[in-house]
Amino acid sequence: MKIYVIGCSCSGKSTLALKLAARLDITHIELDQIWWLPDWQERKITEFRQIVESRLNSSDNWVIDGNYRRVRDIILPQVDQIIWLNLPFHIVFWRSITRTISRSISHKSVCNGNYERLSALLSRDGMPAWIIRSYKIRKQYGSALKATDNRVIELKTPKAINTFLKNLKSMISY
Questions:
Q1: What Å distances lie between residue 13 and 85, 118, 147, 154, 172, CA to CA?
Q2: From residue 32, how far is each of 41, 64, 112, 165 by CA, in Å?
Q3: Which of helix, strand or coil describes residue 102?
Q4: Could you list the pLDDT tens digit for every one of the 174 residues in the chain?
């Protein structure tokens, strides 16, 4: 089983992917962990692609999460199921604010020793601003993919995500 979880930032991709990996006893691959180096430096695209391809090929069963166009051509041909978290804007925007505050206060590492700061709430590079810039693009991509690919399961609410997890065995096509 190979599953790709997509959706807007703060939609719960990594959280869902972790739960799927645990319940299905398969490998979890988080694209953010591969892309971001310490001090919020970006990995070179060629290296990123090589690492992603290597991780995908190192396991027969996996769940991967992220929205990186740079590697979609490597991921999509291999997946059995695509889960699109298509949550409303107000939910993901609110999550971006609360998550930034929570991570800033707790000083919880986001990935590879990187941390969020309260200043990110108002920064052009912060998550709330990123949600504003990318939400429509992610929604358009998910809609187009769903229209052309029968492997897509669209989940539109947190309740739908919980129901999906509860009924996992019947929802995933093996």
A1: 7, 23, 21, 12, 16
A2: 12, 10, 9, 23
A3: helix
A4: 999 999 999 999 999 999 999 999 999 999 999 999 999 999 999 999 999 999 999 999 999 999 999 999 999 999 999 999 999 999 999 999 999 999 999 988 888 888 888 888 888 889 999 999 999 999 999 999 999 999 999 999 999 999 999 998 776 655
Q: Are 91 and 12 a contacting pair, CB within 8 Å?
A: no
Cβ pair 10, 89 in contact under 8 A: no
Taking the CA atoms of the chain, what radius of gyration do you get in angstroms? 16
- The domains located in the chain, with CATH, are 2-86+137-169 (3.40.50.300)
Overall pTM > 0.85: yes
CB crowding 106-134: b at 16 or more within 10 Å, else e: eeeebbbeeebeeebbeeeebbbebbeee
Contact 96, 135 (CB under 8 A): no
